[in-house]
Each structure stands twice: as structure tokens, then as C-alpha cells.
Amino acid sequence: MESQIGPRSLLALREAVAVPMVLGVHLALAWPACAALESGVYQTLPGATVEERGDRVPNGSRVVPFSATLTIDLSAAQPSLTATIPNAVLEGGEPFALTARSSSGANLLDGTYWFTGDYQRDLYPSGTQYLFDWRFSASADGQVMWNGITGWAGGHIWQVTISDLALVPQARLSIAQVGTASVQIAWATKFADHVLEYATSLPAAAWNTLTNAAVTLGDRLSITVDTDAGQRFYRLRKP
Questions:
Q1: What kind of fold does domain 34-170 have according to CATH?
Q2: Does 146 score more than 90 pLDDT?
Q3: Which of 66, 134, 188, 201 has its Cα between 20 and 30 A from that of 215?
Q4: Is residue 191 within 8 Å of residue 29, measured between CB atoms?
Q5: Mean pLDDT estimate for the chain
Q6: 74 in Cβ contact with 81 (< 8 Å)
Q7: Superfamily for 174-237?
Q8: What are the sequence ranges of the domains in the chain?
Q9: What is the tens place of the pLDDT at every residue in 120-144?
Q10: 174-237: same fold as 34-170?
């Protein structure tokens, strides 16, 4: 039986790639194993799909490929989420690139994180009636699971159902200047079993492990390095 959603229900590993940064410092990223939900960047697995249903969808429903990179911040009083979706769908049309940002977020009593927002606000800042209601939780095997709906809250039926999509955390280094000649490189504590390495050029003939002791602050590890050693590229690697 089909049901229509409304505003009330909706609102209730590959090689490291270098990314140029400031002060001649560069960061390289790597893909680690999955872990429980905490602040960080997450990626859907290859081959993920969602179901789209609606009055304007060919044959009333279809299963379409789906991929997304999600940045989740759980450190504030109200958690937030940003989803970058290269193959978003709308009303049975062709896939398009979309960034969706939460307008509200909460940690529910069962440990699930709940995010809602306007699916198309980045494209139409004045707001639309295309809304999302997404939830993220840790499964028994430690994976992060994504469930929820995206739908039209107006006068016809359109809905995308996300069911038990597994997410893997993406190792990401951040950088901040902490002096005239030093920067702080930080990463999530879920990657405490990784080592921070550097090279002076790419492709690298060899990577060197930093021996500086990492400092833990909340759910982040950080190392402060000098910037007067010339150009460097950094990466996280699991030994």
C-alpha cells in the first residue's frame, strides 16, 4: 500500500591522493576499515542503491545507484550533517550533483543520530518542500548504517527510501596554523592504529614516519610540525 509523506512526518582504497594545503604542507588521504559513528567523514560502499517511488517515476518505482560522502559533526550541542551526493535523483529525472545540509540534528535515546533538512536548499536558498529525514546508527558488527527517506511534502507522491546502507569512515587529515612557523595536523582517534608519514615529492620514492608524539584532544589526535623544512606531503597509513 502506498502512503504519502508530509511535513510533519519528515521533520519528526586506493593509493593516497595528495591535496595541496597552505604553507607548503600537503595532505594525503587513505581508506581505513569501518568503525562506529563519531564525528568524521563517511563514504557509501561501491554498488549501493536506493529505491525511488512516485507519480512521476517511470513505472511508479525504480532502483537507482547511489553514492555519497557525508561529513558528520557530533561535537556541537546540535549535531550537523553535510551530504555530497554526485548522483542524486528527483522526480524520476536524470542523476545530478547535490549537496544536502541538515537544519536540525539530535542524538536519540537509543544512540541513533537523526538529521532533517531541506533536500534542495543549496540550489534554492528560499526553501523547497523536498525534505529529508535520515538516521545513522552503529550495527552489531560495528558498521555505521544509514536509513531514512527523502520526499516531497506537497500534493503528490515522491519518495526515495534509504535502507541499511553501510558507511565506512574516511581517513581525513586537517591542518591549522598554530604559529608563524608551525602547523597542527589532526585526525580522528578512530585511526589511532595508523601512523602519520611524509614525503618531499609525489610520486614518492619513500615515505618517512613522523616520530613526534600525538596529542589527544576529545576525539582528535594531532601532531605539530614545523613548516620551515620545505614542501612536504602527509598521509595516514595503517602498518
A1: Lipocalin (2.40.128)
A2: yes
A3: 201
A4: no
A5: 83
A6: no
A7: Immunoglobulins (2.60.40.10)
A8: 34-170, 174-237
A9: 999 999 999 999 999 999 876 667 9
A10: no
